[in-house]
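Hey, I'm writing a tutorial for new members on how sequence and structure tokens pair up, and I'd like a real worked example in the thread rather than a made-up one. If someone can provide the structure for the chain below, I'll link this post from the tutorial.
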Amino acid sequence: MEKRKEYTIDFHNVKYYLEMHFVIRESLEFPDYYGCNWSAFWDCLTDLYGTPMRITIIGLEIIRDKFDDAADKMIEILQRFKHYPDDMFAKDIQIEIVNEDSSVTVIE
């Protein structure tokens, strides 16, 4: 079995909306042409299909506090990514959120 690629998105030092997307781009190794919007996030994520991976998100509460629905939108897209198309890659994709209290929420 292919080794799982590990990605960590850490939002702890994010102060500005665009900076959030820069952290996403760097953390997920998106190309330089990543458009820093949710449509581009989806497009670049789907380029990763077929690669077993674990995405760990740290500091999501910072995004929730600063940028209205950005955190919810990102989680919605990650859930869709995990289960699209027809759960073909769902078993290969693990997405976890490390909460403020260090507990872990798994995106199903």
